[in-house]
Amino acid sequence: MMKTVIRGAVAGAAxxxxxxxxxxxxxxxxxxxxxSVPEQIVDTAAxxxxxxxxxxxxxxxxxxxxxxxxxxxxxxxxxxxxxxxLRAGGIRLPVWVGGTVTAALAMAASDLPIAxxxxxxxxxxxxxxxxxxxxxxxxxxxxxxxxxxxxxxRR
Length: 155
Description:
It is built from 5 helices and no strands. By secondary structure, the chain is mainly α. The mean pLDDT is 93.
């Protein structure tokens, strides 16, 4: 079981790297700014549980940025572990199907807190907003599932 968890975490890390590269390439190509949503999620979630991210001004913003990025890495690794466990349990899909399902899981893991915490309302997003969210997650899903599916079977 530990090999499955490690395999999933590594696959999720590879997928997260691919997601970030895709998002940064989009920013470079279209000249769009970075999203502040991860920081807003961390700040809002902290308030909801009675915590405060320490610091003021730029120091606090830097902490929020770091915590937002770390939370994205944790979600990416966590979804990778979940997918690896499901695959080890016998759910074996073609890479294009498994990758798409993995992408949907990752989008749900990131977009549901956005809506649930009231940071943004996905129902109001434009088609361009959805594509900017969906394409990097699809890349994440394909890479993550591809790594999980391509890993050698347990012996």
